[in-house]
Fold each of these.
Amino acid sequence: MTIMLEDVDEVVRALRTVLADEQILTGRADRFNRARVPAPFPVHRWAERVPDLVVLPTSTEQVAAIVKIAHDLRVPVVPRDGGTGLTDGAVPLRGGILIDVKRMNQVHELDLVNRTVTVGTGINMLKLNEYLAPYGLFYPDDPASYPCSLVGGRIGTSGWSLIGARYGHTRDLVMSFDHVLPTGEVIHVGDGIGHKVSKSSSGYQLKHLFMGHQGTLGIATRATLKLFPKPEAELSPFWAFYNYDDAYACTGALARAGVATFAGAVLFDEHKVAYLRRDDEAYIPQPNDVRALVCAVMYGWDDEVRAGGRRLFRIAKEHGARYLGDEISEGDWAARHDRYATPLHGRTKDGQVVPMSWHCEDAAINYSQLPSVTRAWHEIVADLRRRTDVFDDWGMFAYTQGSTGVDYLTEIDVGIWEQQLDDRAWAMWVDAKRRIARVTLDHGGSISACHGSCREGEVDLVPEELGRGFDLMLDIKRTLDPHNIMNPGKYLLDRAYPEEG
Amino acid sequence: MTDLDHDAQASADPLLAPFTPGMHGNPPELAELTRNDEIVPQVVIPLADVKTREFVEEWHNASYNCYSSGHKFCREVCPVVTETRNESWSPTAFHANVVAMERGELTIEDVAADYVNCTGCGACELRCPNTLYTGDFYRFRTRTVDVVKAARALAVESGVHQEGYRSWNARTAERSHEPVLGEVPVGQDTVRDWADGLGIPVGGETILFVDCEAAFYRTSVPRAVAQVLQKAGYEFGLMGEQWCCGGPAAEMGYVDQARTFAEHNLASWRATGTRRLLVLDPHDYISFTEDYPKFFGADFDLEVVLVVELFAEMIRDGRLVPDVAVDRAITYHDPCRLNKRKGIWKEPREVLRSIPGLRFEDVDRVTQWSYCSGAGGGLAVEKPELTAAISARRLDHAGRLDVDTLVSACPWSERPLTEAGDDVDIDVLDIHELLATSLGIEVGGSRGETGDRRLAQARTGAMGRVRRTKGARGPGDAPSGAGSGDAPGGAGSDAAGSGAGDR
Ligand SMILES: Cc1cc2nc3c(=O)[nH]c(=O)nc-3n(C[C@H](O)[C@H](O)[C@H](O)COP(=O)(O)OP(=O)(O)OC[C@H]3O[C@@H](n4cnc5c(N)ncnc54)[C@H](O)[C@@H]3O)c2cc1C
Ligand code: SF4
């Protein structure tokens, strides 16, 4: 369904009526460099994923006009922001127009009285926080991709924040936004119609619908965000354990403690510790009997963080934790959340070091199910490794999602030697992803807590996860996007258009 | 590091227990499994074009290390991406292109023009997790600047020229100096004019190397340096027959030309018995510490001394005592090649802190990773408007502070920064000029047309430069006219260009 070359000229002619020449890119390199995201990529089939052309709009009006043209000409449109998404959302599957919104990175309004900021969705959170720092404010959407993901992609994925247990996740922090529908119409969605309203019960709650859709329902262009006082204190103790079970018990206890400044806890399993031991400099070598780690994070005013910290230290001690000291704690937390410190080198089973790509599976799993899911997932990756060194097990993290500790973003990191990928290895991988998602559903979890679940393999189980809800997704998709132009091929949404198949 | 071998033995399946691959004592099945791998290593069909093949062979591993990450942590510190928001001109793309070339998906013709969009500042290399976390262990660091230089060289070798680069280097070859004065010719007969009246000998054990921009355009810089050296009683001479260092040619891909220039200069130093080079320009410092050793190996045995480091040392040990108060409120611009490429940021601050009367509002060197003048890497030759926009953004950062002067330590940065400074009424001075003034030296020379005009106004008490009102743009004020400029390049209120460094 990739548009044919003579059509590209027609599309370009139409686009020239709304964009400057410099905003329309048709070069091969421009297109190849917007074909992939950091998720495992079938490099050997790169050419199948390139868009036909790229546009760099600078305003809502331009985005709306482009989408309208695409809608009229029935050309696929793929929104792309930071290009850091891990579920291939920004990877074009049918060619078409790639709308790169990075130029829309202005701060439109800072409202110091109501504590909000209105920005273009091409802005990065770290950059936004540099801007906010002199005002003593900060925007706490803090994924491990904090230095590189952008607000539009956060909306498109309905992202997850490391400190979400304290401040909420993207869905809680984005109050409202301007949104271009697949027909080119512009709407404003929020709680009710408000720009700066954080809770409304007027009408259907549409905001959630237009978050996490992976660009299949349109493009957010301008968003109003909730701001907090810049935390005065940050405490991030790391504790060592002799076994996984104690670390697991401790994580649960920390999360259930009900400490108001608690921003999150992270559990490193035994495979993760073994992996970090290989070569991660952010991890200071620990004695061999250290098998699992737990980190907790508290943000707030100095006095409240101190008081909460004392309580968490007491809980950790009761669970047999050994505190790793201030230096490791601060350094490791900074590394782990400011720049995701995964050494991007894997090893073959007999020890050869090879460059590998990082894959992160990110299901939402209830606390009670963590040990069982952990075991089952490692088994799946062991099966892959038994067959080939294309895959490596980089261990697992479990992160608290909310302040009560009910569920965890559960992440298994798999190294993939992309240079060696061929169709067979890719098929093994897709099959493993399907099995990983199956384990999640069997344990009552959700296939993805933060990235989305529209990659090959996992996506096959989405209809099962959502049940009748998936059919509703199809109905909504068809209603809003009658010609299937918005990011076609994602989330099995083609099923909404049986006549096409 | 541990092998955890008892774990591996405890479990029936060695792959289910955590282990460190490659440790002795691991179960032998592991190596056996590796031998029986189901996926046969990919056979990459070698590229027909020999030059491209050699390039790809040299750079594919380095490029793949980035490609397999692709996280783009570098993007928001890259001055070109910050300005253009164009992913095709990002460090990520500069690496991915090599992988695509290896696969035969892209050719040098497809990508050559993209590689223009790099100032060679090195910010991406510092921000890259591959450098930060695996550097020491694997002896690896991201080398975007070298990848860009190599790609430009491949383009030139393959006959793919950028018109601006081509003509700049042709004119440089003709005159043996860069055409920094445009139509006004430069050459051997005028390269020492800046030193008129200073009575500096030619040749000798130590010579002061003056880059083309400083020798012909911002002559106040070498004059300041020379007079400070004289004041300290430091013996030095001018070069016998000085040509351009060749660095810019090397950066733009004209490697043979760069080498010819280097050979000439080395021969000249040999002829004058020179053992030591004093370097005032960070770009030359890169040429002499990176390019020349690459060209000549161990034969290049001259000592290379960066002047600002020497001055810091002289101030430390009392050979220089700045005692004339300079009434300015300044901030310091870390030249990319010093701060990001060479890790030199302490000494310039030492020099500035020694000058009485200055009010110095410093911005830390890490925040300045994303700052740049845009003048480096030949960008100004091919895309002067982009250089100007990057400079304007740098001045916008300075404008958020309570300062009237931006001090740099790099003559190449000072021309576009001075122009941008004029628009927001901020002077741009060179650190050596400032030090000289504080030593009671009447510097002389030219700071370029705009710089001279601004200085003249200030000196005569004309209304031109008025110290900005203190705190004029401090926090607490409502941010002004947000969202006005939607166009990229408009500094405006774009937060990507905000000042105060957070984390
Ligand atoms: C090292 C690393 C660590 C990560 N850690 C986390 C983490 O802790 N938490 C987390 O949630 N994610 C994490 N991610 C994943 C990724 O950063 C997030 O999914 C992020 O939200 C993607 O943002 P982006 O700007 O890169 O979007 P892109 O990748 O460009 O796009 C993501 C999706 O949103 C759509 N989209 C883009 N712009 C818009 C728009 N304006 N309107 C509507 N849809 C749009 C795209 O079509 C695509 O489907 C991590 C990624 C990396 C590489
Ligand atoms: S240069 Fe480094 S930080 Fe930038 S994309 Fe490549 S690996 Fe990532």
Amino acid sequence: MPLPGEPLRPIDHSAVGSGAILTRMDVALTTRNEAEMIASILGGDPERYHELIRPYERHVYRMALSFVKNEADAEDVAQEAFLKAFHHLASFRGQAKFSTWLISIALNEARSRLRLQSAVRMESLDEGPGEDGQISPALLRDWREIPSQALERKEVRAMVRAAIENLSPIYREVVILRDMEELSIEETAAMLTISTASVKVRLHRARIMLQKVLAPQLKSSAPQRRWFPWS
Amino acid sequence: MVIECKHVWDHLSGYLDSSLPADTRALVQKHLEHCEICSAILDSTRNILILTADDRVFEFPVGFSERLHARLNEEFHRDTGK
Ligand SMILES: [Zn+2]
């Protein structure tokens, strides 16, 4: 976090502590031969599928949960996605990383579950607040709390979760893929079958919406003693 | 050329992703250097990105893995039993 007067640097996603998912996945991949695992699963040893998917369980579950919003449904969606991936494993040709392929299956599973849910509620899948106009961020003095410390508080985790869940689906998807799963803009666009320009616009709006909702809540929940002394 | 706060806000996401064209980035950068409001917005947005990327936000349920692998085993045995 920059000090006043220090040049502001762009975020380095790879340096975001425990959130560096794909970086960690990539590290895992260097010590795992996934192509070999997949070949032996397809060759008649399904037991190796357990080993293949273990590093991705959390990601698939988290993606499901941010869509369907309750734990039981999320677990169900995640299980279905893993079963589907198993049954379609022969169609994985190594054109993408296995993790990316798996995430796209989980995305489709979560989307179709969400469509079932919202068919009941008649919620539009495309409209979000401020879709046409500019979304203004919350104006406040700097919130200086260290994010990793803030997350030690249960209510902060709940706030962040609720804010992501309350985004409308088109915004939630880009946040999940880009900011949670840390795919690139291009990978996000490919997975959602939209242009990179659309990804950028949606991402921008989603991030400003999250800032607008979360910054005031986080600031008011922050204990004074955890603030940096200069604020 | 000087840009207004409102226009800076349009570029925050691109700024955080380092995806702005060099001239736009320079304008935004210059504005941020002496605008406390926009700097605060940028910092809070950056913090929020760090929060959303954190694994702890969406907690992993106890027993998830065991239930998943048990279900997979059922599926494997169902398939081989055919
Ligand atoms: Zn400004």
